TrEMBL record:
One of its GO terms (biological process) is D-xylose metabolic process. Residues 322-435 form the Carbohydrate kinase FGGY C-terminal domain. This is Carbohydrate kinase. The keyword Lyase does not apply. InterPro entries: ATPase_NBD (IPR043129), Carb_kinase_FGGY (IPR000577), FGGY_C (IPR018485), FGGY_Carb_Kinase (IPR050406), FGGY_N (IPR018484). It comes from the Bacteria.
């Protein structure tokens, strides 16, 4: 009886699955995300740890069998600075953060981003650890002096529950890990001016590493001391595993706060002259990688348009149905994040736009244009990542049948959607079971799903729409300024 816990940016979820991979108990609770001036986005480690305790205690109380292990996954990137006891030395800085926008732009102009990409296959963006740590080294050096480890959300929680300082290779993949050797590239660290802070980086855990609850963690969760705990991979690769991505060329679309597009590959040969964006994520299987393009567009854009137009999220379906493909000529670029875009290109100055509007257009056209533009962004990401096999999808966005149909039509391929939405926790549990020597039937776990077919005439229409999107994007990139 393994409890899977997915520590998202705004929501923490705990799930227990039966032997066929069907959820039999789950609990959720929100996390606090503080949006501050200057594009700063922070979270409180104590509050996040508290959400884990809340959902684990709740879901454990709903099952009759004793809990045998805890499998953790959660948000990646950002910086979670801690001392030797696992206490935060400052609020955690989220992957959504934009305080390092100007620094990232300078690195792009100076060739630092390109140099790091050539060594690790990872494109840097304002919310990645390199940019944030370099910013802090310039503006809050005393904070880094107090810290013992600069890690991520999942390993921060692991330290509080087990006392261990660790990091999963998936989290460490961006931006300093060479995915081929699964070791840090020291020259990449030096390129970012962080040699003096090298000691803050925990060495990546080996595959199938198992930790154990210490007395403090056991008391916090209401579980036995010594209970096995696994840590990672973080939510992007965990979702790929949980959804059923198995063969090279297969991909997964996560329509969440961000639009994460990933493709499984058995080669980490990256084009050193290509766009320095996206990342190669190491997976639990040595020799397999996920080419990830986690765009900054996603359901946060839908929340924004709902607030702007004074509508509720459930109204989106009806609005999409009342505007035809092409949104009656309204077009959009979806780059609403204050920290710009990070995949399939990196530009901290990227901003959204709507065009083609007239007095004849209404809310439905604006909503549909935005949803179509996010689907075009997904196609752009998958083109860059090399999608060639089956496509899976998960995240809050695919709960909308109308929006999922737009994704299928724009991508021109069927989309397989697992019936259970907790694919991140599911992936973490599958990894934990393998580490504990109790593997489940992964094919059985992936069998409970439905497929959304694309509409051929819509797919043909969106071919030209995608060309228009690309042209609009190319024109806009020449105008963006920080």
């Amino acid at each position: 009886m393994i409890i899977g816990v997915d520590i998202g940016t705004s929501l923490t979820k705990a799930v227990v699955f039966d032997g066929a991979g069907v959820s039999i108990a789950q609990a959720t609770t929100p996390s606090e995300v503080r949006h501050l001036s200057g594009g700063r986005v922070e979270q409180d480690l104590d509050q996040v740890v508290g959400t884990v305790a809340t959902v684990v205690r709740e879901v454990a109380s709903r099952v009759a069998e004793p809990v045998t292990a805890l499998a953790l996954t959660g948000q990646g990137d950002g910086v979670w600075l801690r001392d030797a006891e696992g206490n935060a030395v400052r609020p955690a800085i989220s992957w959504l953060d934009g305080r390092a926008n100007a620094l990232l732009a300078k690195w792009q102009a100076d060739g630092v981003s390109r140099d790091v990409f050539r060594r690790t296959g990872s494109g840097m963006f304002p919310g990645c650890a390199a940019a944030i740590l370099s910013y802090l080294d310039q503006h809050e050096p005393e904070v880094l002096d107090r810290a013992v480890v600069a890690g991520y959300c999942v390993d921060a929680v692991v330290q509080r529950l087990t006392g261990e300082i660790t990091v999963d290779v998936s989290d460490a993949s961006l931006p300093f890990l060479d995915p081929r050797t699964r070791q840090y590239d020291e020259k990449a660290i030096a390129a970012c001016g962080l040699e003096s802070r090298r000691g803050l980086f925990a060495e990546p855990a080996k595959p199938k590493t198992v930790f154990h609850l210490n007395s403090a963690g056991a008391e916090l969760l209401g579980l036995p001391s010594g209970l096995p705990v696994t840590a990672g991979p973080f939510d992007l690769p965990a979702s790929a595993i949980g959804a059923g991505v198995r063969e090279p060329g297969d991909g997964i679309l996560t329509a969440g706060t961000t639009l994460a597009c990933q493709v499984l590959t058995d080669s980490a040969d990256f084009d050193p002259e290509g766009e320095a964006a996206g990342m190669f994520l190491s997976t639990p299987t040595v020799g397999e990688y996920l080419r990830a393009m986690p765009a900054m567009v996603g359901t946060a854009s839908i929340d924004w348009v709902c607030a702007l137009l004074g509508i509720e999220v459930p109204e989106i379906a009806g609005l999409l149905d009342s505007s035809p493909p092409g949104a009656n000529g309204v077009r959009a670029l979806p780059f609403l994040s204050a920290s710009g875009e990070r995949a399939p290109f990196v530009d901290a100055a990227a901003r959204a736009q709507f065009s083609g509007l007239s007095l004849e257009h209404g809310r439905a056209d604006i909503v549909r244009a935005l949803c179509e533009s996010i689907a075009y962004a997904a196609r752009h990401c998958f083109d860059a990542a090399g999608l060639s096999g089956r496509l899976y999808a998960c995240g809050g966005g695919v709960r909308s049948a109308a929006w999922t149909q737009i994704f299928a039509d724009v991508l021109g391929r069927p989309i397989v959607i697992p019936s259970d939405p907790g694919v991140g926790a599911r992936g973490a549990v599958l990894v934990a079971a393998e580490a504990l020597g109790q593997p489940y039937d992964v094919e059985l776990w992936a069998s409970s799903s439905r497929t959304v077919e694309f509409v051929p005439e819509n797919a043909e229409f969106y071919q030209s729409g995608y060309a228009d999107y690309q042209a609009s994007l190319a024109a806009a990139r020449g105008l963006w300024r920080l």
